[in-house]
Amino acid sequence: MSASVLFDAPGPKAVVRNRLYAVLGTLAILGLLALTIVRLSNKGHLAPEMWDIFNYAGIRQNIADAILATLKVFGIAAVGSLVLGVLLAVARLSDHKPVRWLATGFIELFRSIPLLITIYAVWVGFLTDYSMWALAVGLSIYNGCVQAEVLRAGVNSVPRGQREAAYALGMSKTQVMTTVLLPQAVRAMLPTIISQLVVTLKDTSLGFIILYPELLQTARLIASNTQVNGMYPYVSTIVVVGAIYVAMCLALSGLATWIEKRGRRAKTGIGPAAPAGNAAVLGGDAGNANANTILLGGGDGGTGGGDGGAHGPGN
Amino acid sequence: MNVLLDHFSEFRDGFIGTVSITAVSTAIALVLGIVIAGFRVSPVPPLRWFGTAWVTLLRNTPLTLLFLVTTFVVPEILFPGMSAFVLGSIALGFYTSSFVCEAVRSGINTVPLGQAEAARSLGMTFSQTLRLIVLPQATRTVLPPLSSILIALTKNSAIAGAFSVTELFGWQKLMSEEGYDIVPIFLWVSLAYLVVTFFVSGVFRTLERRLEVAR
């Protein structure tokens, strides 16, 4: 449903009114922006020297190193959370009660505690001298729990016929899970998994608090160690670093959207779930929201068995 | 065990701090989120663009960065010496408002077309349609995602503790710096957060049950 249902095609009066609102709204927004700029420049934050610091090779090198540090911890945490997510999802779907309970307890516990509390506890308790690993472990635990719920929802969305057919072929439990259920679950949940990875990327900024020199911590160090005109260039570093973060996150979410569109085009197999949007991005109860995902293409198993693969995207 | 008994008053202050920053920023996030969702479906293009920009920008910024912005930039723009609590609530509230906005907007999309059409054919204006017809009906579908957004907000409030707001993470940090063992501290803090998040989800479950209709 587009917005246009909520209002009529504007008549002459409404056109005038809408234009008036448009002008007023624009003026208000521009006014706020202007106020910001005037106040900042009055205090000297917009002086050219403040922004000139980014021309120094040393500072550029620092920022490049910091981006690398951020990406490194993101890489470790992404791999860690996906591995842990698969393990926990499989454990939670296990036939053995103790395993299931353990996994459920672990997931529910760490999903409902703030990530920062976990990271800090890991840092102080176990890895005081290795803040990168503390950050990566904390991120892996929390995001692993969220990914586990996403994968579980994906496995549950695979049509029953698939599992039954696999057992009928004489596959073992492990084979059914690894060769039939999980691949389809991953395919269905890929957009959600990637938007959770965007959250992981954003959360690497918590390294700021445990003094890991990632992008944000470096920004703070740059700002507090450089003095320009007797002031610290917090505003300019924050703007620059913020732009870098937004660009990285947008690139990753762009990937998620692209994969989702591409998946929607393919007519075989299970369609990817609609992006779990807000809930998933926040790392909330994304899993439950997605529990009964739709099936787009064939592969329902009901008709003749071999409907699922093999044909490729026919149209 | 001792850590809680020895420092119960700080723990209580921290708990109250977490609850109050959560409450204040929830209020900010709900009001802003609904207003911006209204902007995003409004017939006025500049407001729609503003809404889109707001959501895109805030959803792709790490919350820690927003806290830095409110700590170092906002006082320069408004007036110096604003309290950490106010600044923290602004950061949390603004950040969460973008998620609330998206939840409300998708809730608006689930209201059957006929409702808005009927409202229009009765001659209602856009704001009347939205306020009297669409938003009340959207409430029911918005509640479940809103519940997980607010739980996430509660958890995110821990970051405020690193920016000198008195709350539970601050207590954890203080206690571990005083040399107490981290494991009991972690357990007590987790327990406190569990209480808050269970309360939030309980409230929402009650609300959902109240608003439930037989279909």
TrEMBL record, chain A:
Keywords, sorted A to Z: Cell membrane, Membrane, Transmembrane, Transmembrane helix, Transport
Source species of the chain: Streptomyces gobitricini
Lineage summary: Bacteria, Bacillati, Actinomycetota, Actinomycetes, Kitasatosporales
Annotated InterPro entries: AA_ABC_transptr_permease_3TM, ArtM/GltK/GlnP/TcyL/YhdX-like, MetI-like, MetI-like_sf
Keyword Transmembrane helix: yes
Signal peptide stretch: none
Family, per entry: Belongs to the binding-protein-dependent transport system permease family.
Residue stretches spanning the membrane: 20-41, 66-89, 101-123, 234-259
Main location as per UniProt: membrane
PROSITE patterns found in the cross-reference section: ABC_TM1 (PS50928)
PANTHER family: AMINO ACID ABC TRANSPORTER PERMEASE, MEMBRANE COMPONENT OF AMINO ACID ABC TRANSPORTER
UniProt-recorded name of the protein: Amino acid ABC transporter permease
Cellular localisation: Cell membrane
Domain ABC transmembrane type-1 intervals: 67-256
Record's keyword annotation contains Transmembrane: yes
Membrane topology recorded in Swiss-Prot or TrEMBL: Multi-pass membrane protein
UniProtKB/TrEMBL annotation, chain B:
Membrane topology: Multi-pass membrane protein
Coiled coil location: none
Entry keyword set: Amino-acid transport, Cell membrane, Membrane, Transmembrane, Transmembrane helix, Transport
The ABC transmembrane type-1 domain, residue ranges: 15-204
Pfam families with a match to the protein in the record: BPD_transp_1
PROSITE patterns per the UniProt record, alphabetical: ABC_TM1
Transmembrane segments: 15-37, 49-71, 77-95, 146-165, 185-207
Presence of keyword Lyase: no
Gene3D superfamilies on file: MetI-like
Subcellular location: Cell membrane
PANTHER family: AMINO-ACID ABC TRANSPORTER PERMEASE PROTEIN YHDX-RELATED, MEMBRANE COMPONENT OF AMINO ACID ABC TRANSPORTER
Family label: Belongs to the binding-protein-dependent transport system permease family. HisMQ subfamily.
UniProt-recorded name of the protein: Amino acid ABC transporter permease
Source organism of this protein record: Streptomyces gobitricini
Lineage start: Bacteria, Bacillati, Actinomycetota, Actinomycetes, Kitasatosporales
